[in-house]
Amino acid sequence: AEVQTTGRAGRTTTGDFVVSLLVLVAAVMKADGKVLRSELDYIKKYMLTAFDRESSTEALAMLRDLLKQEIPVRQVSLQIRQNMDYASRLQLLQMLYGISSADGQVHARELDTIRLISQYLGINQKDMDSIRSVYMPSTDWAYKVLELDPSASDEEVKKAYRKMALKYHPDKVGYLGEDFQKIANEKFQKVNEAYNQIKKERNIS
């Protein structure tokens, strides 16, 4: 499964992004050695939220072809890392977690594969934990989303929020098109929710 990504100065095109996403989704789905019909149904619904019906049909056809192949996860991920900007790689990781958790279940082998892909993509641990916390919340999820320790000062909370709001603003991936901006907005909204929850808990004005 050869992924060819182009784009001047690391700028990713929508086509490059979609192909990269589908290859990585196939790798995650194959992680436990079986592809369930229910998984395909969830991905179909997920794709329809990201693409129009025609594009979604094309994407699913490509995914079915990819599922018949052996995906060289390391090779593909490293190629994506070399050719894709960091904001787009964060968006890829967000969608992998979103699709993996779409059926309401946590699949250990899929999570292991996503973690491995994240490392190959060059995504740092804090960013990975932050995105993971959006889809698999824990008791201190708000702090994890903002990449903070619960012992952080109020000023550190405010500073972290400003940094994360800038990092995950949907405009960062505006060049991928309106549909992907909508999905990017999920993370942006979670950043705001996390900040508002901490503000409420601490009575920060």
What does it look like?
This protein has 205 residues and is mainly α. 68% of the residues lie in helices and 0% in strands. It is built from ten helices and no strands. Helix 1 (14-29) runs antiparallel to helix 4 and helix 5 packs antiparallel against helix 6 (108-120). It is globular and about 55 Å long. The termini are far apart.
Identify the quaternary structure here. Answer: single chain
- What is the H/E string? HHHHHHHHHH
Shape: globular
**Low-confidence residue ranges:** 1-9
Q: How many helices in DSSP terms?
A: 10
Bin the strand percentage: under 5%
Span of the ends, CA to CA: 51 Å
Relative helix content: 55-70%
Radius of gyration: 17 Å
Query: Which structural class do you get from the secondary structure elements?
Result: mainly alpha
| Overall mean pLDDT | 86
State the major sheet: none
Number of strands: 0
Question: What structural keywords apply?
Answer:
mainly alpha, 205 residues, single chain
Question: How would you summarize the topology of this molecule?
Answer:
Elements (H helix, E strand, L loop, with lengths): L13 H16 L7 H14 L2 H15 L5 H11 L2 H15 L7 H13 L4 H11 L5 H5 L8 H14 L10 H25 L3
Quick description:
This protein has 205 residues and is an all-alpha fold. The chain is built from ten helices and no strands.
